[in-house]
Specification:
Elements: H1 13-25, H2 29-36, H3 40-43, H4 47-60, H5 63-77, H6 83-92, H7 96-108, H8 113-117, H9 119-136, H10 140-158, H11 162-176, H12 180-192, H13 196-209, H14 214-226, H15 230-240, H16 248-260, H17 264-272, H18 281-298, H19 303-311, H20 316-326, H21 349-360, H22 367-380, H23 384-393, H24 398-408, H25 411-421, H26 428-440, E1 449-454, E2 457-462, E3 467-469, H27 478-492, H28 496-509, H29 514-526, H30 530-543, H31 548-560, H32 564-571, E4 579-581, H33 582-598, H34 602-615, H35 620-636, H36 640-659, H37 668-673, H38 677-686, H39 698-710, H40 712-720, H41 724-735, E5 739-741, H42 742-749, H43 767-773, E6 778-782, E7 785-789, H44 792-795
Parallel strand pairs: 3-4
Antiparallel strand pairs: 1-2, 5-7, 6-7
Helix pairs in contact: 1-2, 1-4, 2-4, 4-5, 5-6, 6-7, 7-9, 7-10, 9-10, 10-11, 10-12, 11-12, 12-13, 12-14, 13-14, 14-15, 14-16, 16-17, 17-18, 18-19, 19-20, 23-24, 24-25, 24-26, 25-26, 27-28, 28-29, 29-30, 30-31, 31-32, 31-33, 32-33, 33-34, 33-35, 34-35, 38-39, 41-43
């Protein structure tokens, strides 16, 4: 989802094809696919493009995508020499009618040897077509015509062309009549194209003709279980589990259905007796092995670790599951079990992106129109609720999943939020966020107490919701407002004496300007003139006892005096206000977090700091206190539970970091921009950035480091400081054109997942960690594959160094 273009902008189509061929020859088929598919929208009628994509998909192990592009290329070019390879591809995927068509065209081109090369297989295909023709009561020529539409529909289904699949299967049905395989494929395409009721009707039509049809029963279980109708799915499962598994394809369909019903023992038994593969290519094998590994993990079998470890080299998600399994967790993230199907498999990428685009356009749309569009989308894709739930619990991304459920706003979506918010699964922050979403939707009465699982016991808490706005207009005369603004600017420039003069001038003009008292007090506090500062904070509160900024400043002084209870009594009434400005809310959350920190209540402190950063992501006091807390945790490791929770937070942060870049050719500012300011300061220190960098804001720091590393002499000094093994690793990534599979890098040089990500206190020792610390490599996720990438600007400079 949201993958950015990784296509070098200067390449034309022919150059891209040449580069893709080179990447395929070097064993990087996935990179070739990612490169070439960018050209499809503008060059979809170019046969060479489809031929190269076909070869790339073949090398990547996806037989269906390979055939789809080769079939398209042959439709465009009609190359006589290509009919035989196309015929063989079709035979391998059991597409008999298309294979027969290709063989006849080869013979017409005087390629007489064609039939001799595949004699037995072709004879079997002819017999199969004849059998279907007799069964359907059709002439063989007419049956072949219908089967060609059906088989082209199979290709469309396997490659995600759902409207094409629907169209082709409807044409096939017009010729063949009620051909059940055709209706089954039609139903799958209908479901994934957003017609769930039509999909269910199509499957019911098959079951009326054949009550034990494995594909129809499996489809019904998928449709019903993914859309919240598990009880209805169970009825079909009871029928399906009594059916003889039969061949490999039917057995796989039953395995998928058993997985959806969470029947792990049944899945394992079927997998253990799986016949040899007949078709589908390496992608089919990987799918089968992932099912086996997930099943073993759910059954608690020790061999799950080896199975997931082997798979992680080819399927990045297996690495996530492996990490959870070896940690002794029941599933990834906060899940209660290991999922057979990832959230991304519930919806086509195109539809996920369409919905995300709709969410981005909400501010520009009338509310009623937006709600109508959301309702229409969720009617078409009811599995969106399960997608959001899996995003939260399995993928560990509540920041995406909870707002998604709140936007869907159906009873099913609210029920998921209730299960999370009023349950015991997940972190306190996760469950609190779910309850807040329910309250904002009016599903929990405001200010009424609710039962909440807090620190291993049920407690009664009150939820308070806030409306946060931007800055506020100053309420004084225009000349006074201008003086206040000028004083703030002068203070930021570092001229404290002049700022004091201006604030005092403000107070002569307007003695009730509480902001002037507060800001003067802040200057004196910075100068360690604390008595004067305390007096001025009191003066601000004399003017406005509800003034949040001054209350918080006074509370901080009380905390410094050890008067935590008094500090708490001072700031807690401010939380009763439902309308605050961004600065007020951020400072109030920070102040309360500091109080919890001093009481050693670190989880509560972190939750409040997260709230502050939600409204102001660059709020430095909160970021600094988070660093202090995490350093303390790292140093003291207070308890096993805390250690596990902290490790989970670190893993979520790292996964977010790994998915932040969606291109295999990002520039330096992109690769640096994913880091926190704290990490950037350590990168600046490590690469010996020019003096003065410690005062820079984050955006300025990113530009400064990027400019420094783009300078040949500076980069040479950075490279010279590397250890020999680090230079070797960097050189190996460069040999692969600046892009290397994360698993390949890990296998050769190890990773930094177990190292501290707080470089200020614990600089990394691993090769991966040190190269990241030097800004020379980054992690990116492209088309679901985790990569190590070198920033684009450095790729042309490094070979000379």
């Amino acid at each position: 989802m949201g993958i950015q273009s990784s296509m070098p902008q200067h390449l034309n189509l022919n150059q891209a094809i040449d580069l893709a061929e080179d990447r395929i020859n070097k064993g990087h088929a996935a990179q070739a696919i990612d490169l070439l598919r960018e050209f499809l929208p503008r060059h979809g009628d170019d046969a060479d493009l489809h031929l190269t994509l076909g070869r790339a998909h073949h090398e990547a192990g996806d037989s269906w995508q390979a055939l789809a592009h080769r079939h398209k290329a042959q439709k465009l070019r009609r190359d006589p020499d290509f009919w035989i390879p196309l015929m063989i591809d079709c035979l391998h995927l059991d597409l008999s009618a298309l294979a027969l068509d290709a063989s006849r065209r080869a013979i017409q081109e005087d390629l007489i040897h064609a039939k001799q090369e595949v004699g037995d297989l072709l004879a079997w295909s002819e017999e199969k077509v004849q059998t279907i023709a007799v069964f359907m009561g059709l002439a063989q020529k007419r049956a072949e015509e219908g089967l060609r539409f059906f088989e082209e529909g199979q290709i469309a289904l396997h490659t995600g062309d759902y409207p094409g699949c629907i169209k082709l299967n409807r044409r096939a049905l017009q010729i063949l009549g009620p051909f059940t395989p055709c209706i089954n494929n039609l139903s799958m395409a209908q479901f994934f194209y957003g017609y769930p009721q039509e999909a269910i009707r199509s499957s019911n039509r098959v079951l009326e003709l054949d009550p034990e049809n494995v594909h129809a029963l499996g489809n019904m279980i998928r449709f019903l279980s993914w859309t919240g109708l598990a009880d209805q799915a169970l009825v079909h499962w009871q029928v399906l589990k009594s059916v003889d598994p039969g061949d490999t394809q039917l057995r796989m369909k039953i395995i998928e259905a058993a997985a959806m019903m969470e029947e792990d023992d049944y899945v394992w038994d079927l997998l253990e007796n799986m016949p040899a593969r007949q078709q589908g290519g390496r992608s089919f094998d990987l799918q089968l092995e992932l099912m086996r590994a997930v099943c073993a993990a759910n059954l608690g079998l020790p061999e799950a670790a080896d199975l997931l470890g082997d798979l992680s080299k080819h399927v990045p998600y297996a690495g996530v599951l492996l990490e959870a399994f070896v940690s002794g967790k029941p599933g990834p993230g906060w899940a209660a079990r290991y999922p057979y199907f990832h959230s991304s498999q519930l919806l086509p990428d195109q539809q996920i992106n369409a919905f995300l685009d709709l969410l981005k356009r909400e501010p520009d749309m009338p509310p009623k129109r937006f709600r109508k569009k959301v309702q229409r989308f969720t009617d078409r894709f009811p599995q969106l609720v399960l997608f959001a739930e899996k995003t939260i619990l399995e993928d560990g991304v509540p920041d995406a999943g909870i707002p998604l459920l709140a936007t869907i706003a159906t009873p099913e979506a609210y029920e998921v939020l209730r299960r999370i918010g009023f349950g015991q699964v997940g972190s306190e922050e996760l469950r609190m966020d779910a309850l807040v979403a329910l309250q904002r939707a009016g599903k929990i009465p405001a200010d009424e107490p609710v039962k909440f699982w807090l620190e291993d016991e049920w407690r009664e808490i009150r939820l308070l919701d806030y409306e946060i706005g931007g800055g506020r207009d100053l309420p004084y005369r225009e000349e006074v407002n201008l003086l206040l603004e000028r004083a703030a600017e002068v203070n930021l420039e570092g001229d404290e004496d002049r700022a004091i003069e201006l604030y005092e001038q403000v107070l002569r003009e307007e003695p009730r300007a509480k902001e002037a008292y507060n800001n003067l007090a802040s200057i004196y506090a910075y100068r360690s003139e604390h008595e004067k500062a305390r007096e001025l904070f009191e003066r601000a509160l004399d003017v406005d006892p509800a003034y949040i900024i001054a209350r918080c400043n006074k509370a901080i002084y009380l905390m410094d005096d050890g008067e935590l209870d008094q500090a708490e009594a001072l700031i807690m009434p401010a939380f009763e206000r439902h309308h605050m400005h961004t600065q007020e809310y951020a400072f109030l959350c920070f102040t309360r977090a500091r109080m919890h920190y001093l009481r050693d209540e670190l989880k509560q402190a972190l939750h409040l700091l997260d709230l502050a950063l939600e409204v102001d992501p660059e709020y430095e006091p909160a970021l600094d206190l988070i660093d202090d807390i995490e350093w303390e945790v790292e140093r003291s490791l207070r308890s096993e539970q805390w250690r596990q929770e902290q490790a989970e937070r670190d893993r979520r942060k790292r996964r977010k970091l790994q998915s932040a870049i969606g291109s295999d050719a990002p520039d330096l500012e992109k690769t640096l921009g994913v880091h926190t300011k704290d990490s950037l300061t350590e990168i600046a220190r490590t690469v010996d950035l020019e003096p003065g960098w410690s005062t820079l804001k984050k955006a300025e720091l990113i530009r400064g480091i990027a400019h420094h590393l783009s300078d040949a002499r500076s980069l040479a000094n950075v490279i010279d400081a590397l250890k020999p093994v680090e230079k070797k690793a960097l050189g190996l990534v460069m040999q692969r054109e600046g892009v290397m599979a994360w698993g390949d890098f890990d296998a050769e040089f190890g990773n930094d997942l177990e190292e501290s990500q707080y470089w200020r206190f614990n600089p990394p020792d691993s090769v991966m960690g040190r190269l990241r610390l030097h800004g020379l490599i980054a992690e990116a996720t492209v088309a679901g594959e985790l990569l190590i990438v070198i920033p684009l600007e450095l790729r042309s400079m490094l070979p000379d160094l």
